[in-house]
Design a protein that fits this description.
By secondary structure, the chain is mainly α. It has two domains: 3-155, Beta Polymerase, domain 2, CATH 3.30.460; 159-300. Helices cover 57% and strands 6% of the residues. It has helices spanning 3-22, 39-42, 64-79, 102-110, 119-124, 127-133, 145-155, 159-186, 190-211, 219-226, 236-244, 249-272, 284-291, 297-300, and strands at residues 30-34, 59-62, 98-101, 137-140. Strand 2, helix 3 and strand 3 form a beta-alpha-beta unit. Helix 9 packs across helix 10 (219-226). The longest helix has 28 residues, at 159-186. It is elongated, with a radius of gyration of 22 Å. The two termini are 39 Å apart.
Length: 307
């Protein structure tokens, strides 16, 4: 059974009855689901995932008033429920199940108690943090407070921020994949060539997620998550090939051809979204065209590679 399904089954079997029996007056003020850290929250877990950082359970989110009233008692009641999963070994994965204030949950990912309030705040947030804050499932949220912030983070990125991030990734694709990778191979610097290709693939993935208006998850899941994307998700295999094929001279020729195919596909989508109109094969001038659509003077004045 997948982790999300298991968590919901545990909530329905143990959590919901506990809330109705011990906290009936607050049942409508407790948001419930499984969101955040872990492959299971993305639906990517398998049997191997359970060897570490895979605690059983679900999340109970409270507003400040409800937390003051029943937070401690609800935490004790939750810890008394008859299930226990693999213990979380990583400090980064700790405290991801059980009772949390809504503000505390979101501050882990955004640095504040809700969605960013400025363009600069949005720009500073890494995509993987936003992906974790908006993954998983919410099974009950009568008040809608948790879901309101969730939707703001999932769908509310300002267009200027999307364009700034997109321009930065497109120009990185040009410099790393179209320019530096083949030069590194010709110099016999195969380690540097691999680093350049990794930069290209990471930037290409980031650009594709932005073109889909989706947050890209943690690096080990970003290629897998690409398969879910409507636009350019079919480039996943080509991007994976660039990371796994040889970097000798014959490999360089093949990889460079694949890089150009990927760049052409990205340019096609940029044109479909009316973000560029040029006929260049090289991506750098397209990045500057994207930046021309940014309205905010502060974001427009930033270096093209920032974001």
């Amino acid at each position: 059974m997948k982790g999300l399904d298991e968590a919901r089954a545990l909530y329905e079997r143990y959590g919901a009855p506990m809330i109705e029996e011990k906290f009936p007056a607050y049942a409508g003020r407790i948001a419930v689901g499984l969101v955040g850290h872990g492959s299971e929250c993305f639906g990517y877990d398998d049997a191997l995932s359970r060897d570490h950082d895979f605690p059983q359970g679900f999340c109970l989110w409270l507003d400040d008033e409800t937390d003051r009233a029943i937070g401690v008692a609800l935490s004790r009641a939750y810890r008394a429920l008859p299930f226990k999963g693999a213990q979380e070994k990583s400090a980064l994965g700790g405290n991801s199940r059980g009772v949390r204030r809504i503000a505390d949950f979101y501050s882990r990912y955004t640095g504040s108690d809700g969605a960013p309030q400025s363009l600069e705040q949005w720009l500073s947030l890494p995509s993987h943090a936003l992906a974790e804050a908006t993954n998983g499932e919410v099974w009950r949220d009568d008040q809608g407070l948790f879901t309101e912030i969730r939707l703001q983070l999932r769908d509310g990125m300002p267009e200027d921020v999307r364009l700034k991030k997109l321009a930065a990734r497109v120009i990185t694709m040009a410099q790393a994949g179209q320019y530096n990778y083949p030069r590194c191979v010709r110099h016999g610097e195969y380690g540097a060539a691999m680093l350049a290709m990794t930069e290209f693939v990471n930037a290409a993935c980031g650009a594709i997620f932005l073109l889909n208006r989706r947050h890209m998850p943690y690096y080990k899941w970003q290629l897998r998550a690409m398969a879910e994307l409507e636009k350019l998700g079919n480039l996943r295999e080509a991007l994976e090939y660039l990371l796994t094929a040889e970097n000798d001279e014959s490999g360089r020729v093949l990889k460079s051809a694949v890089v150009e195919d990927i760049c052409a596909a990205v340019i096609g989508e940029l044109k479909a979204q009316h973000l560029t109109h040029g006929s260049w094969d090289y991506l750098e001038p397209h990045a500057y065209e994207i930046a021309e659509h940014i309205v905010s003077p502060a974001l427009r004045s930033m270096h093209i590679m920032e974001g």
